Amino acid sequence: MTNKADTMLRNYHWMFIFLLLAGGCSETTESRSEQERLYVGTFSVRGSKGVYVYAFDRENRRFSPQQTVTGPDSPSFLDISPDGKFLYTANRQGIGSDTISGSVSAYGIDPDLGQLSPLNEFSSFGISPCHIYADGRYLYLSHYAGGSISVLSVGEDGQIDHLIDTVQHHGNGPNAARQEAAHLHSIQPVPHTPYFLAADLGTDQLTFYEVGSDTVTPAPLPAIRTEAGAGPRHFTFSPDGRLLYVAEELTSNVSVYEIDADRQQTRFLQRISTLPEDFREQNTVADIHLSPDGRFLYVSNRGHESLAIFAVGPEDDQLSFKAHQEVFGKTPRNFMIDPRGTFLLVANEATDEIVLFERDQETGLLRDSGVRIAVPSPVTLAWKAF
User: Which residues form a coiled coil (predicted)?
Assistant: First the structure.
């Protein structure tokens, strides 16, 4: 009996240790899945050193500095590859002795800590790159000063491989101060199609393209012309890719278009102001994003120093104004909504601070969390959860 009891006791002992270890592994996996990182691109002014990486503690609403990555000056726009393994920055500074073109930097993202390690650098093949989009195969770049777009190939290892093609835009608009020439301001693929779209602030036009093996050519969709002097800057699509929302920088409007890629047609639906009717001061809009569920649209106002919040009509696709949210700083150049739709972060470029808002997912309205991140000249934000 004693031997049998001893054996049972030993079995219970080892079973307890196994369960304890299994529980520990489960806890480690859960905590690892909850890790989140914020990546901040900056202009190289007021002491900025490049790209800043922060760990986010969601439960306590706390950001902790993890890394500062130096490289070419003004990594002013960045994007993360769809698989979350690589980060790319569009830099105003060129490589080496190249003082004309900008550059692109590729970084690997550590799967455990989220820190960045440099992979390679490449010319952007244009002047003043201001926007970059990574789709896993290509990098799409728009150049504000040079008025051109570039498409670069990316290898499986994340490194920038070679130039596919560049396209130079020409023309101007009625605003002599801002539209004296073509100014490509943003570029991204059209969901569920083989095409991508480029917004030209200087010519009031958005043009569709497609990428071949070694060339970029116009896509079989007509270019979209905004109203004269609107200055299309950034844009976003509805989740199904059917609706296009355009931030018109120079007139502080949002315009909405329907895209039918199968029929090769586009249709204007609506134009709505981002400002109060009685606001008469200088303002330019900057960034534009839909909530993850597609129910609310947000646009940043530089001058009014606010976010304009719109509801998307579920039946008629019409935008209706809901509210203006003060951003508690100046020049909200870029902002983002976290993937869960819980938070919205605003990068106030001129006041060197990022503001964290809590987002009501039912109403779309925002509440100041009181959390601030001090960063010199923050101009673009990206998020990774792992």
Answer: none
β-strand pairing of 366-374 with 353-359: antiparallel
Token pair for residue 321? 């104004």
d(CA 13, CA 11): 5
CA dist., res. 254 & res. 328, Å (int) = 23
- The structure's pTM equals 0.91
Helices and strands counted in the chain (H then E): 1, 29
At 269 the three-state DSSP class reads: strand
- CA distances for 30 relative to 27, 37, 53, 229, 385, angstroms: 5, 16, 22, 51, 12
CA 323/CA 116 separation, integer angstroms: 38
Task: Show the tokens assigned to 325.
Answer: 């949210």
Q: What is the pLDDT of residues 315-363, one digit of tens each?
A: 889 999 999 999 999 999 999 999 999 999 999 999 999 999 999 999 9
Nearest to 361 by CA among 309, 321, 318, 287: 309
